[in-house]
Amino acid sequence: NHEFDNGWQNLKRMQGLADFDILSANLLQEGELFADKAYAIYRVNGLNIGVIGLSMEDLYSMTVPPNLNRIQIEKVIPTARKIVRMIDPKTDLIVLLTHQGFEKDSLLAVSVPQADVIVGGHSHTELRRPVRVNGVIIAQAGSRSQNLGRLDLSVRHDRVASFTGRLIPVRNVRIPNKSPMKALVRKYREQIERQYGKVIGDLEISWKVSKDEESNVGNFFTDVMRAATGAEFAVINSGGIRRGMPKGPIRE
To answer: In the chain, at which residue ranges do the beta strands (DSSP E only) sit?
Structure first.
């Protein structure tokens, strides 16, 4: 859903820059596929692996509607069934790439048992180990780049014979000073600090975010909204406030 935060036109431009496949079988614009492809078949270790992209059905409730102008979303399960039937004879393994959470992925596994694996990308569901539902393996690594998910499969006779999986934490990993990644991070950090390092104010008390109760940063935002509009009261959804801020200098 966040791919559309800057509008569908921007996402189209980004697709033109990508050097990898962007897949979505159920995202349409004026009757045509919005993504590059609905699915792709990759040859890996002697196997033909079909990957089908499936966008969330409630996209309009997760994105600012004007950013989705002329975008239509088809139902996930009927779309998955249709394409699985199409590519099943051509593949040894079928992966459904989704973004809808474990509960809906479990329903998808029950409804489309011909699939082998469902990978929930950025679904906010953290499965420490893959789960098998109706014979279909479901793997999800949580959100906020906290984990790298690894799934190892043994495939025989067009089915998964065995599998293992785990989550590899990537936060707080020490990167060697001579690593090319360290140099890349330093390069972009310096660019960001030059552009956004200017101090524009000072915060006397830390802003603390809460999704379950009133917060001081939420009160600040609603006070500003009320003052700017002349309203008697203002409301903001707490989930829309993504982060707090420690007391001290406020940088641009």
So the answer is: 27-29, 32-33, 39-44, 47-53, 71-73, 93-98, 117-120, 131-133, 136-140, 147-156, 159-169, 199-203, 248-251
- Beta-sheet pairing, 47-53 with 93-98: parallel
Report the 3 state secondary structure along 196-219: HCCEEEEECCCECCCCCCCCHHHH
Q: Which residue has the tokens 């989704």?
A: 98
- Return the pLDDT at 233: 92
Q: How far apart are CA 27 and CA 31, in angstroms?
A: 9
Strand, coil or helix: what is 93? strand
pLDDT at 85: 96
139 by Cβ neighbours in 10 Å (0-12 / 13-18 / 19+) ranks as buried
Q: Dihedral (C-alpha) 176, 180, 186, 192: value to the nearest 10 degrees?
A: -140
Tokens 């999986």, located at residue: 165
Q: Is the pLDDT of residue 123 over 80?
A: no
User: b/e map of 83-103 (b: 16 or more CB within 10 Å)?
Assistant: bbeebeeebbbbbbbbbbebe
Measured CA to CA, the distance from residue 245 to residue 194 in angstroms comes to: 20
Q: What is the CA radius of gyration of the chain?
A: 22
pLDDT at position 49: 96
Cβ-proximal residues to 209 (8 Å cutoff; 6+ apart), any chain: 215, 217, 218, 238, 241, 242, 243, 244
pTM for the whole thing? Answer: 0.78
- Identify the CA nearest to 213 among candidates 241, 246, 251: 241
Q: What is the mean pLDDT of residues 73-85?
A: 97
